[in-house]
Amino acid sequence: MNNRILYEQVRAILLNEWDPIGICDLVEAKDEYDAYIQPICELLYAGKGVEDIYYYLHWVATEYMYLDGDSDLDHRVAEKLFCLPKTH
User: How far apart are CA 46 and CA 25, in angstroms?
Assistant: First the structure.
């Protein structure tokens, strides 16, 4: 698997499953979460665990986006991201 495939898989999960602002159906907003893809890929490549990914997602939602956040959703998405194949 190359970096681009992982990048696209992370992008799809963030948009279609995480989507804290509810924009997945808007074609013009498909790149809304792209700024968070590379940091997540770096966590994955560094061998970080589910909790590290969860904390990043939850921080983005609550501290960066100023949303209430959904801990359960953030954790489920972190688990899914963690399970992606990660070779570079």
Answer: 32
Task: Look at residue 87 and tell me if it is in a domain.
Answer: no
CA 23/CA 29 separation, integer angstroms: 6
Reported pTM: 0.92
Range of the domain at 29: 3-82
Q: Does 45 map to a domain?
A: yes
- Per-residue pLDDT tens digits of the chain, which is 88 residues long: 468 999 999 999 999 999 999 999 999 999 999 999 999 999 999 999 999 999 999 999 999 999 999 999 999 999 999 999 876 5
Count of structural domains within the chain: 1
